[in-house]
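okkk here we go again. third time trying to get the zinc ion bound version out, last two times i messed up the smiles copy paste (missing a bracket lol). double checked this time i swear
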Amino acid sequence: MSLPPVGLRAHRDRGMLEITWPDDPPVELSFFDLRCACPCAVCIDEITGAALLRPETVPKDVAPIELGYSGHYALKVTWSDGHGSGLYTWDRLRALSERSRRV
Ligand SMILES: [Zn+2]
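finally!!
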């Protein structure tokens, strides 16, 4: 399991979430990409893993209203489009971070 990030910072002017992992330089994920990667049962079919969320329905300027920890294992985000059931586990956030680093 991934260790929790040591730093989380929302850059609202640029629409980016900066995440600092214990053993890596900070990485930035866009609010939009993060919203589209929501892992909840509404956005992803729990059984097939198929994406149910259509990115074109997500506002381009979507932003987190609230960021909070869920226990020791995940980030809970309430989004400006009213969606708030997604828990981003450290493993998932880490995977998204690695992916954005390679782009
Ligand atoms: Zn969701």
